[in-house]
Specification:
The chain is mainly α. The chain contains 14 helices and 8 strands. Helix 2 (20-26) packs across helix 7 and helix 3 crosses helix 7. The chain is flat, with a radius of gyration of 50 Å.
C-alpha cells in the first residue's frame, strides 16, 4: 500500500481534522523513504536525459573562437553573418581586417609574432552549491556539542517529513478537486478533513432526511434480543426461563422494529412459536452473519477482565480513601495534642508566691517585746 493511500484512509476514517503533526508522527519513516525514492527517480531521469541528449554544435572561425549553439539550432544565414565568418578579424580592434593578400617578406615579422596577445583566461567561477537552504541549515556545523548536533538533525528530519507529507497531501487535494468526484479534502482548523462538495449539498440533505431515526433499545430489549440471537430459533417461554422474567411485551417491540421474526412452530405440546433474528438485525449491528457474534468464552474473558479492572479500581479508591482518613485523623490528633499541651502549660506562667517581709515599723515592736521578756 502506498503512503498516499494510507493518508487518504486516515483522513477518511478520522472524525476530527487530521493535522500534519499527527501524520508526521504516524508516517515519519515512510515519508522519508518516499522522499528518497522520489529524489532517486529524479536523478535517474536527469541522467538519462543527459545521456540521450544531442551534443552542442561548434563553429570554427579563422580567429580560433568557438561559437556554441543549442542542439537543433541553425546558424543565421544573413549576409552580414557570412561576411563576419569569412573575413578575418583584427584581434586588437575587433573590426574585420582588409581582405589583402599577404606578401611573404623574410624581414617582416611573422603573423603569429605581430598578432596581439590574447587576454588571460578569466578564472572559473566558484561552483554554486545545489543544496537547498533547508539542507544547508541541516548540515552539521563545526563547534556544536553532540546534543546540539542531534537536535539539529532531528529538526532537519522533521522538516523533510513535513515537506514530503505536504506534497502528498497537495496531490490528494488536487485529485479530489476534479469534477468527477463528489468529495473533496478541505484544510479545516489546521488539519485535513473529507467533506462533500458544496454543489452536492442538496442531494446529501435529501438523503439525510430520508433516513430513519436512530434506534434506541432498553436493557430488557437488549437482553431478550441477545438470548434470541444465541439460542435461535427459540420460543418465548424458553426466553422467559433464561431471563427469569416475563418478556411478552419486549417481543412485540422487537417484532415492530423488525429485529426478530417468526420461524415456524416447535413440534411439542402446544406448538409454541419460534423466533429468530432478521437481516435488519445484521445491518444494525454490522454483522456478516450470526457466526460473527462473540462466543461465550470471549464473553467470559471480557467479563473477567472487566471484573478485574473493577476490583483494581475499587482497591485504588479504598486505598486513597484510607490515606485521606489517616491524614485527617493525624491532623485531628495533632490538634488535640496541641490543645492539651496548651491547657497544661499556659502561655503566661503563674506568678511565684510573694513572702511578706517585716517592715521597718514592725521591727522595733518585735525588739520591744523581746526586751520585756
Amino acid at each position: 500500500m502506498s503512503l498516499k493511500a494510507k493518508l487518504e484512509a486516515v483522513i477518511y476514517a478520522a472524525e476530527e481534522p487530521v493535522t500534519l503533526n499527527q501524520l508526521a508522527v504516524l508516517f515519519a519513516d515512510e515519508a522519508l523513504e518516499w522522499r528518497a525514492e522520489q529524489q532517486k527517480l529524479a536523478a535517474d531521469a536527469e541522467a538519462s536525459t543527459a545521456a540521450s541528449g544531442e551534443e552542442p554544435l561548434l563553429l570554427l572561425t579563422e580567429d580560433s573562437e568557438f561559437l556554441q549553439l543549442e542542439p537543433g539550432a541553425e546558424p543565421a544565414a544573413d549576409a552580414a553573418t557570412e561576411a563576419s565568418i569569412e573575413a578575418p578579424v583584427d584581434n586588437s580592434t575587433g573590426a574585420p581586417a582588409a581582405a589583402e593578400t599577404p606578401v611573404a617578406d623574410p624581414q617582416s615579422p611573422s603573423i603569429e609574432e605581430t598578432s596581439a596577445e590574447e587576454p588571460p583566461a578569466e578564472p572559473a567561477p566558484e561552483p554554486v552549491s545545489s543544496e537547498s537552504p533547508d539542507e544547508t541549515e541541516g548540515s552539521e556545523t563545526p563547534g556544536l556539542t553532540a546534543e546540539e548536533t542531534a537536535k539539529q538533525a532531528a529538526r532537519q528530519r522533521d522538516r523533510e517529513v513535513r515537506l514530503a507529507l505536504r506534497e502528498l497531501l497537495d496531490e490528494l487535494v488536487e485529485d479530489y478537486a476534479n469534477d468527477s468526484s463528489g468529495i473533496e479534502i478541505r484544510e479545516i482548523a489546521g488539519g485535513f478533513r473529507m467533506a462533500t462538495k458544496p454543489e452536492y449539498h442538496d442531494s446529501v440533505r435529501t438523503f439525510v432526511k430520508s433516513l430513519k431515526p436512530a434506534m434506541k433499545l432498553s436493557l430488557p430489549a437488549l437482553e431478550t434480543l441477545a438470548v434470541i440471537a444465541y439460542k435461535q430459533p427459540v420460543t418465548a417461554p424458553e426466553v422467559n426461563e433464561i431471563r427469569g422474567v416475563e418478556s411478552s411485551g419486549v417481543f412485540g417491540s422487537l417484532l415492530a422494529r423488525k429485529l426478530i421474526a417468526t420461524a415456524g412452530r416447535k413440534q411439542v405440546v402446544g406448538r409454541p412459536i419460534l423466533y429468530k433474528t432478521t437481516k435488519e438485525f445484521l445491518l444494525r449491528f454490522g454483522l456478516k452473519d450470526v457466526t460473527e457474534l462473540p462466543s461465550m468464552e470471549e464473553f467470559e474473558k471480557m467479563a473477567a477482565t472487566e471484573l478485574e479492572e473493577t476490583e483494581i479500581a475499587d482497591a485504588e479508591l479504598n486505598a486513597t480513601a484510607a490515606e485521606e482518613t489517616e491524614q485527617e485523623n493525624s491532623v485531628e490528633s495533632g490538634d488535640e495534642t496541641d490543645n492539651a499541651e496548651n491547657a497544661e502549660s499556659p502561655l503566661a506562667p503563674d506568678p511565684a508566691p510573694v513572702t511578706a517581709e517585716p517592715t521597718a515599723e514592725a521591727a522595733p515592736a518585735e525588739d520591744a517585746n523581746t526586751a520585756l521578756e
